[in-house]
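Two entries, shown back to back:
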Amino acid sequence: MKKIIIAAFLFAFTNNIKAQTYTIQSPHNIIKATFLLNKNGQPHYAVYFNTKEVIKSSSMGFALKETYSVKGIQSIKDNFLVSSIDSSLVNEIWQPVWGEVKNIKNNYRQYSIHLIEKTDLQRKLDIIFRVFDDGIGFRYAFPKQPNLKYFIIADELTQFNLTADHKTFWIPGDYDENEYAYTTSKLSQVDGWKLPILSNNPKQINEPDEYAVQTPLMMKTDEGLYINIHEAALVNYPSMQLHVDRNNFSLSGSLVPDALGNKGYLRAPAITPWRTIIISDKATGILASKLVLNLNEPSKIANTSWIKPMKFIGVWWEMQTGKSGWNYSDNPDSVNNKKELFPNHHHGANTANVKHYIDFAASNGIKGLLVEGWNTGWEEWFNNWYGGHFDFVTPNPDFDVKEISEYAKHKGIQMIMHNETSGDAATYERQMDTAFRFMNKFGYTSVKTGYVGNIIPRGEHHDGQWMINHYIHAAQKAAQYKVMIDMHEPVRPTGLSRTYPNWLACEAGRGNEWNAFSDGNQPEHETIMPFTRLIGGPMDYTPGIFKIKGYSNVAGRQVHTTLAKQLALYVTMYSPLQMAADLPENYKAHMDAFQFIKDVAVDWDDTKFLEAEPGDYITIARKAKNKNDWFIGSITDENARETKINLDFLDKGKKYMATIYADGKDADWKNNPMEYVIKKQTVDSKSVLLLKLAPGGGCAISLIPIAIGK
């Protein structure tokens, strides 16, 4: 790793309460942050992009709840002095275990501003800024001190005061759910609506804020500036939502509470997550930013050789679409058969069916296989959504773990474990070692965890501090047993895959599965997700559905894309863990198109964001890890689109065979989604491709070097 750190400078200041302003420039003076203590000694910051104001002066600080050491609800937000400042310049290159690029540049200026109260308590608070050329991150730190030891956060008082009523891509604030479709509106039009009361507390103190939105929050100004607000390194702290002041175009941090309404429990010394603001005058600049990753700590796993990105298939989509079920009682031979409840189902996770999937994966170079519904407890769970039904090691009678594991090993397939906790995280923590030893015994290299339901302990929330610590504990425990992990129904990611690279992916958003059991995802959905949900880390989106219509008994239900767009998603929806989500028989009917899924990589040396506009279109090119193969994905919303793609990123002097998987002439996501064409042509770095995308469509391209002499 190449690293340059310029020695820190120390500035000391007298106890003068008058306003003090400090300026922090990014390494190439693109981003500027200012820090101010106003006349009341309250911290404020502002952010500029190329001298243009992006975040107006915004206040900072905390309200603390009464404890034995802090009497009464007290603010720690004003009456401060700057005691000293440490500053440094960091310029380093680091290599992720896996990712979109081989090398990541981490170049920023840091100011650590040390504050002390002008009171008898003399409480201390540090505010740390890191200013990059593509945005800023700032966090709070509570040093070890005699008058602030154990404390409870009542509120974080961080503001993001915007300059105007920006176009905003948002989902509503919710302590337990993030699988919403995105709304595009002016900030002032964020809906005022009340979510259901999710807490068991009769006082309803945990009612979500009716004007809150979740991060990552994507915005665009009328002048064409793109702004993304999120957080990084979310550890031992609740997730931050953003309360919208619709009249003043202001956002303020709103932390997810626990069952008592408390926002966080800390013990000094303590730090908060980074609050992140990514800024660019190009939409592609938001997608290319590595700011969130850079603000996380390096890998805590010393030996990462066992961490391998992969593609997988699964006994899953047939359950989502009603062909089979998770319950063993769906098995016709089960003595507990309840056919009246599931008249059209059979139990999907049976040995013969799993072997069928193993055979298909092995014959097509797909390395992983996920099986859901393999263990006991599903019958009880579907009748009682309050957890405690699974023990994570007991298979149903028709699922022979030993036989399946041996068969998969013989075929070169890695089995992926499924641990649905039904929200009973407390029970899962008690059984984690048992569950992971079971995985090791039977050769499971990866696990998909699930948290559907109300969190146990009662009153905790999916995005609260208790569960934030649980997710990290699960990743740490998986690493202890050399197991890769994919979490479903967790908090939105905040770049912790750098620190725990076995944490390959998670859901934390509205995935492809919603096309199976609801009105689905509208064509613009996948053009918004990379600017929002994916800013913090990869998503297990489960692309690759080939049977666009006719998979459901519900009239009119379908996937809201063309088949070609499903292929393009393997490039535009980044993940090191990519599922070929459809059924083997649906792929066998279109093996020419399935070739792209077989060929496309999941780990990359380079990525080029060629064009993008949130809510409209995205085109991305990626170079496969340790190869010269390139893959392009281009997608559009409900509008047809033509675009020219310059291939000047290819190696000069080399010829490539381009295989283009495109929408057919009359393709349309709604009326004719299955029409596609595949064509080949020789290209080089001087070539320009004209892509025609159907409404709700896309295009996928593989670019493979042509060997000399061929």
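entry 2 starts here
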Amino acid sequence: MHNHFSIQDTLKKLPHNPGVYQFYDENDKIIYIGKAKNLKKRVSSYFNRDHAELNTKTRVLVTKIKKISFTIVDSEIDAWLLENNLIKKHQPRYNVLLKDDKTFPWIVIKNEPYPRLFWTRKIIKDGSKYIGPYGSVTMMHTVLDLIKQLFPLRNCNLNLSDKNIQNGKYKVCLEYQIGNCKGPCQNLQTQTDYNYNIEKIKEILNGKINPVLNTLKTEMEIAAQNLQFEQAQKIKNKLDLLSNYQSKSTVVSNTIHNIDVFNISADTQHAFVNYLKIMNGTVVQTQTIEIKKRLDETDEELLTIAISEFSNRFNGLAHEIIVPFPIAEIEGIKFTVPTLGDKKKLLELSKKNVLYFKKERLEQYEKLNPHIRIERLLLQMQQDLRLNQLPKHIECFDNSNFQGQYPISAIVVFKNGKPSKKDYRFFNVKTVEGPNDFATMEEAVYRRYKRILEENQPLPQLIVIDGGKGQLSSAIKSLKKLGIEHQVRIIGIAKRLEELFYPNDPYPLYLDKKSETLKIIQQLRDEAHRFGITAHRKKRDKSTLVTELENIKGIGKNTANKLLTHFKSIKKIQEASLAELNTIIQTHKAQITYQYFNQKNNPLSNK
């Protein structure tokens, strides 16, 4: 997956995933290929350390690196296998050259009566089942040993045909005597029982190892309780290995031979296409390119352009091409859209790489050009929310009340995808008695847009109502009264945030939980809640303070409001001089207030 940012940019953006990295020189030639359990830590280590700590060859290598690319894989073992494949293919100058004669080890279940189970480096197409390959030979032997302990199988190479067994051609051997075999050669174990064991073994080899792990955990606990610590440690070692067991490799397969895999991810302005080349069952090439859209091309058109580009780069493609959706036929090439199996896994690996590349590239663009992000975000929102115009101006309503008292409706405003705090407003709801969310919403929406129309202010492109169908219907009533129901788009958010309600639609729209549109809506609602609670608290506190001031004999509500409006808090009123109070309220009332807060026995006095 090629990354054309500077080295420092690439280092910042490296993921913490397992994968393979490639270093290029000034001629764009690969000079080193490495694997990593954690790409970010491993690749950064070349550049973070003092060069004096590096050996001579590594120091020279680092000075020649002009570009870095990387490919994400699913596991550490896959990283090892892909590194191996790519080194053999490209033979970079600074890598130890690998010979082609040593192939990966596999576990085979032989296609024969009473199948044998053993490991091999040679695949024979005789109907046998091959599982692997194994990047760790130790892991492979652990799996084999464990299976042999759990399910005793024959390890002889006798021809156990029904005829030979019935004729008594064979006698049990020492393996039977010591319990490693159940003697199928003398019909001491039925074929049904043997085949049942084989099916269980296939489950383990294909990754269903939880029952085995639980059995081992129990054995380890029993051994520890019996003070057999050495035995417990041996079982723990097996547990640790099996916990990291990977039954199948994504980058090496014995069922897939020469194919090419493509996957695409596009937005309104760019498309990114990843390419994996598989030869003789192994991934030998991986690259991602970017295509800038000129018109509103479909994903199918863009993918076809990319396939043509890669065909030119690599002098032709395989006869079978794996793609994520059907595309028009090209003579001599078979397009396949897999739904399961190894081909589907390769398509998912390609998708993982293309999505990561897209995310990092767009972040880089948008860091340099913030307006691009805003434009893309608004276009995405318009598309996701089925709007007929860009939602440059969004308003969100949220209601608050405290036990039915002090009802408040808060309005927060987002412009170009960001909070515009100077435009936030809240209404003290006047006509509603008690906790009635629907009536509160109706009044707030009516008053808000009546004022905007009277002042000839622009209407928002989108109104978001924090509530379900009931609140949405109440808001629409007010828009209809004002005659603007067709001029703005309005939606309601249910308690489950991803459910959006539209007028006259009984079914909600569900947004992807990871979508940026949903993040903006979530931010809108959180801001509305925050602002609503703040405004509500101020009103509640002010009401409480007014009540406290009214406790002063001779001070009424109007005087209390005047004092609070000027001084903002009881503490500041308490600290005010008589002269200061005189400038705000009538002289005799100033005298009463001053005396109340300054008499020696008053618990509120500081003196």
